[in-house]
Prior knowledge:
23% of the residues lie in helices and 33% in strands. The chain contains 6 helices and 12 strands. It has helices at residues 54-61, 63-71, 118-126, 146-152, 163-167, 174-181, and strands at residues 13-17, 30-37, 40-45, 49-53, 78-81, 85-94, 106-108, 112-115, 133-142, 156-160, 190-192, 195-197. Helix 1 packs across helix 2.
Amino acid sequence: MGSSATSGSLAPGFLVAAPALADPNFDGSLVLMAQHGPEGALGFVVNRAAPVSAADVLAAVDGPLSRAARAAGRDAGAVLLGGPVRTEQLWVLCRPSALPPGEDFLAVGNGLALGGSREILEAVATAPHPSPFLLFLGYSGWGPMQVEHEVGAGAWVPMPLHEDLVLDVPLDARYDEAVRRLGLTPGGFTVGGGGAQA
């Protein structure tokens, strides 16, 4: 189901929470935007750890999968809180090359893939080769024109997709690194009229 960004789309890309954002669900967050269009937007917070581990999640899915992941050394990863919507729903973010053949997924740029099937989870959690992946509980969603309004009000700073921010930069450094890549100083930027200022 791969898709490409349309003109003016915030996806694929990031939203960097501005200090003025008055929503505790997103304070200090970096959101990977997976889809954005007239019907709304879908994203995942990539810098907020869930209070459970990958081993916990895999064990909750089933014992054989948990044991296979442990045997492959793939059950030690962090689980992230993707957002406040449907936090019981599990999503997997990985490289497209890690996907089982023929599996349906959502392309995020050219190098990231999102899915929620048991087959994708099993493929990434038991792969004998070290392909990075993230597990998300829940997602972030916006209705039609909602995210555009929030960006216009200075709550978010849009940023192009940098795939390394998601899979290579440590969890606790992702937000500050995104702010630096915007050319701003972490902890001290303000947003006004849609433009960021140091």
